[in-house]
Amino acid sequence: MFKKAMLTVLALFMVTNANAVELGVGGGAFIPMGDAKEVYDTGYSADIYMDMHIAWPVTLRILGLYYSADGELNGVNQRLQGIGGGAMLMLKPELGAVQPYIGVGYSALSIRSGSHNSHNQYNSHNKSSESGHGAIGQVG
User: Fold this and answer.
1) Strand 102-116 and strand 76-91: pairing?
2) Which of 12, 61, 91, 111 is the most buried (most CB within 10 A)?
3) Spatial strand order in the sheet of 76-91
């Protein structure tokens, strides 16, 4: 039911504000937090997004996420990867050529971690997968 409601809102918004939708791609650093920072180095993240400009300077951002970070635990190479999606509310004032933004939101992720060899292949005996959700933020 929630998905239908979101799709209906999205469709109505796109019909009434066809020129207020922006598609894009982004990327940056993935910085492990908590216990993960003891094992994993700073990695990279990539996202695709659709911004819907609600009312200046507020924008709704729907995004897809991917991230990866490598590290070492007890002398064994480790890799952490995740894929997911989310929604954010952004403050995105348009100031000519400069367009700063800050956003907060919520995402759901599928996470895979485990050891890997020099050919970037996961060790099938030492990997785990789980899903999670939580707050996300972006600044630019």
Assistant:
1) antiparallel
2) 61
3) 21-30, 43-55, 58-73, 76-91, 102-116, 122-139
Q: What is the pLDDT of residues 37-66, one digit of tens each?
A: 888 899 999 999 999 988 888 999 999 999
Average pLDDT, integer, range 117-140 = 69
On the 0-12 / 13-18 / 19+ scale of CB atoms within 10 A, 113 is: buried
**Is the omega angle on the peptide bond into residue 32 within 30 degrees of 0, that is, cis?**
no
Return the residue matching tokens 């999606």.
85
Burial 79-106 (b: 16+ CB within 10 A, else e): bbbbebebebebebeeeeeeeebebebe
Q: Tell me the whole-structure pTM to 2 decimals.
A: 0.65
